[in-house]
Amino acid sequence: MATDExxxxxxxxSISSVLSEKRKFPPSAEFSKNAHITSMEEYxxxxxxxxxxxDKYWGDLAEKFHWFxxxxxxxxxxxxxxxxxxxxKTNICYNAVDVHAKSWRKNKAAIIWEGEEGPQRVLTYGExxxxxxxxxxxxxxxxxxxxxxVAIYMGMVPELIIAVLACAxxxxxxxxxxxxxxxxxxxxxxxxxxAKMVICADGTRRRGGSINLKNIVDEAIxxxxxxxxxxxxxxxxxxxxMHDGMDHWxxxxxxxxxxxxxxxxxxxxxxLFVLYTSGSTGxxxxxxxxxxxxxxxxxxxxxxxxxxxxxxxxxxxxxVGWITGHSxxxxxxxxxxxxxxxxxxxxxxxQWDRFWDIINRHKxxxxxxxxxxxxxxxxxxxxxxxxxxxxxLRLLGTVGEPINPEAWMWYHRIxxxxxxxxxDTWWQTETGGIMVSPLPGATPTKPGTxxxxxxxxxxxxxxxxxxxxxxxxxxxxxxxxxxxxxxxTIYGDNARYEKTYWSEFKDMxxxxxxxxxxxxxxxxxxxRVDDVVNVSGHRLGTSEVESAxxxxxxxxxxxxxxxxxxxxxNALVAFxxxxxxxxxxxxxxxALRNHVAKEIGPIAKPDEIRWAKGLPKTRSGKIMRRxxxxxxxxxxxxxxxxxxxxxxxxENLRDQEDD
Length: 659
Ligand code: WT7
Description:
Largest sheet: 7 strands, mixed
CATH topology of the largest domain: Rossmann fold
Bound molecules: 5'-O-[(S)-butoxy(hydroxy)phosphoryl]adenosine
Number of helices: 21
């Protein structure tokens, strides 16, 4: 386990800062009265019942869906491999779309889309059904069979959700790649999943400009032998090269396809998607989720955490390229027949009030966003928010990283006008759905904690030896029982799956997070305990950034650590040793930053690069990241340096003026 980290400064720092937080906010009587879960007593009862008989709890929830054939057993558990609803046959697209298109919701808005430049589109459940069925036929005509992997690389347009749902409809496995990733990152993901097809857009709009996505795909697929065809959606009208035989326009293919397509009747454990996420070592991990278990928990957690009602307009600001977008932009809301507000672009385009303007114009009732965005809004100034009427809002949510109590209070006062409960939702790409969160009509919230686990979810905080911690004692966050939306493996790498998640503690899933549980049983996340950093709510492995730096000609060695950042949560600081013949200067700094953007994507660019004649290492040659983190944060090293091999190296690593 990685662990010089548990004693690191930022962690002890976060423990002491949250310890002082004593404020408590119960939901209003008005909110509770109308909520799905109306009191803590009701929650406790549900939690106890689910703990006593998990098979019954999850089985009852699964009954609410359409099954072509019912399951034989709720859970087969051969640790660490789970099979949920074995023997059952279903289709998640059928449950998310057809069920509603056949009901009174046929003419209800499924997706209200707003483009960055202001255009609007509304897709009803009926229209979504037609488009998804058509595109599913396109996939079939293009030779996509159940189990084939399909990579999707496009911006936030409804066709992204249509493509995802169409894959699920025909039993293909979608692999959405966030449109901010580079050609190199695409090739890596496409090759690892051996995707047969890439679906992309010509371009995507961003802050008034546009990015040519097709060119990036062209560059990526030179190195991806598995790809047979590319389907291109026209969004921005960029100039693109269409390669004969390989590339096809979305609209041409849709023009030929029928609008009825029987959904594939897939096994409960049929793979649904692979989504890549960073780990502490090596290449990104392809997190594999399967059909029925994911469906049950994504839908049910959405219903209770967001207290969804048919009248709601739900605005999730996450990109579908991340797990939040999969579970709570697409599947969770659609499985509930909810109305989604999907916005194409940047929060500060054309100005810092875009979200608030959207909320006012569309009368959004539920907003789900990230602490990093909230901190950016605080900095931009309250007047951007207060000039809009936000009376339609009734519930707020956050996800992605710990929310600092000041940001929570601002969200509560300025956005929620002290009226809206806040659900701080803890979960991971691997968990598939929300694990720890308030239930808004029941749980009294405290700024900075995701509060209690959802019914059926057995999380705990334990010591290194696996024993439970006492109240308020910092430890490791684990999950003690399988849950339906858990990852099934790392795509193509069972050994890594077993090692990463199941080897630290006996019979428990290790989350990689440090946490403490307070006297009310509320979980306070203290951040990662491994070499994974959360930058603006996005997970980055520092080793990936190091590999990218070292792949640049001038670089001999690099170590990347994080330091706290007001807006991004964490900023990346790279300590770089150059090969002898190179000299570190401003141009090289810029070149390195651009190189990382090219290798991984702009989100991974180091915020600061310091030149290092040598890196602090132990006698056995292990880089002492703890010291680098202290240097990056406070410019001083106060911690234990007794194992340091060469004391001289530290002197050179303090803040550096631009050369
Ligand atoms: C890591 C998972 C889940 C969707 C977005 C991120 C951190 C996530 C919270 C929260 C404190 C949080 C954890 C977790 N995290 N939500 N509410 N409070 N920390 O998904 O990229 O898989 O990252 O994000 O460290 O392990 P991800």
